[in-house]
Amino acid sequence: MPLHLTPEDARRYLESGEAPGPHLDLIGAMAAQAAAAGLRLGLFEALADGPVPLPGLAAALGADPAGLRVLLGALTATGYLTEGPGGYAPTAVARSLLGGYGNTLLFWQEVTAGLWGGLEESVRSGGRTADFYAWLGERPDVLARFQRLLREQAEWLGEEIVDAAPLPDGARRLLDLGGGHARYSIAYCRDRPGLRACVVDLPAALEAGRAATASAGLTGRVELLAGDVRGELPYRGQDAVLLFNLLHGFGEEEAAALVRAAVGTLRTGGIALVLERDPGHRGDAVARAFTSFFELNLHHTQGGRLHSPATVDGWLAAAGCPGTRRHVLTRSPAHVLTVATRA
Ligand SMILES: C[S@@+](CC[C@H](N)C(=O)[O-])C[C@H]1O[C@@H](n2cnc3c(N)ncnc32)[C@H](O)[C@@H]1O
């Protein structure tokens, strides 16, 4: 975790230049690796019920006591653990890893360790130098973490989105492009008993959708179609098409073409819904930094970028959907939902 600096150290590292500020980033990067190792070892779970001394902890984790002592020292120095007479105990920061953030930390640690080498090459060339989805497809564990992140976000936002953007009266057909885990299709199908949905995504992503639709009892109403959304899209005459967190995986030209093709699947009066993280979102310093690094990952691993709501409006208008409605989601103010009707 970020080190707690005394005001004097903060001045020396962050303001006066007497000490190198980037040294703090180096320690932060090392701390993330150490916390990820702790998670994989089951360290934080083993400490969940109270302090445990080193020998007992090493036995419980099946770890070498000398190796574990060094890791515990690093995690204590960076604020994850405290050491007291009863042994090592987790701080509030470490407890957040057990409360769900552990999956997020492991996912991003794996992405940055596995894909961010050569970051400067994608900046120099302007094109991606890694392939996020191919890389994920070869790593079922990391893909499962990614799907869990998306699923949790969809379960949190789905209700608000269905309320904010109801489908046209009598809607019967919905196309969910890049909808992998199928949670948004499921939310709309639950809201509209007469609705059938088709999710189009890469084969690996559809595994999660298959399990979700089965457990929702919607196997017969949600079709899962493996395919590349940049190719010919299935179906015409749709009542609604979803482009949720999909456009940011592509550069401007491909994203605009995708919007055009998506609108082309709609009937007159059908609606296009676009959900994207807003690059102009003014959150706190942490939110601004995360959005910037999120976009850096898009550029480097997918050739993508965050497209502004105004840019998306322009693509929708050019595709035949003049006049859009925008909803900033109260459950995630960093996300904008754009709704447009095919004229
Ligand atoms: C960031 S996820 C968003 C998933 C879901 N729509 C959501 O909002 O939670 C992007 C999805 O697009 C899919 N995807 C990316 N490129 C694709 C392509 N060329 N063809 C089909 N699906 C693609 C990915 O597999 C992934 O499921």
Automatic annotation (TrEMBL):
<dbReference type="Pfam" id="PF08100">
    <property type="entry name" value="Dimerisation"/>
</dbReference>
<dbReference type="Pfam" id="PF00891">
    <property type="entry name" value="Methyltransf_2"/>
</dbReference>
<dbReference type="InterPro" id="IPR036390">
    <property type="entry name" value="WH_DNA-bd_sf"/>
</dbReference>
<dbReference type="InterPro" id="IPR036388">
    <property type="entry name" value="WH-like_DNA-bd_sf"/>
</dbReference>
<feature type="domain" description="O-methyltransferase C-terminal">
    <location>
        <begin position="132"/>
        <end position="320"/>
    </location>
</feature>
<protein>
    <submittedName>
        <fullName>Methyltransferase</fullName>
    </submittedName>
</protein>
<dbReference type="InterPro" id="IPR001077">
    <property type="entry name" value="COMT_C"/>
</dbReference>
<dbReference type="InterPro" id="IPR029063">
    <property type="entry name" value="SAM-dependent_MTases_sf"/>
</dbReference>
<feature type="domain" description="O-methyltransferase dimerisation">
    <location>
        <begin position="28"/>
        <end position="98"/>
    </location>
</feature>
<dbReference type="InterPro" id="IPR012967">
    <property type="entry name" value="COMT_dimerisation"/>
</dbReference>
<keyword id="KW-0949">S-adenosyl-L-methionine</keyword>
<keyword id="KW-0489">Methyltransferase</keyword>
<dbReference type="InterPro" id="IPR016461">
    <property type="entry name" value="COMT-like"/>
</dbReference>
<keyword id="KW-0808">Transferase</keyword>
<dbReference type="GO" id="GO:0032259">
    <property type="term" value="P:methylation"/>
</dbReference>
<dbReference type="GO" id="GO:0008168">
    <property type="term" value="F:methyltransferase activity"/>
</dbReference>
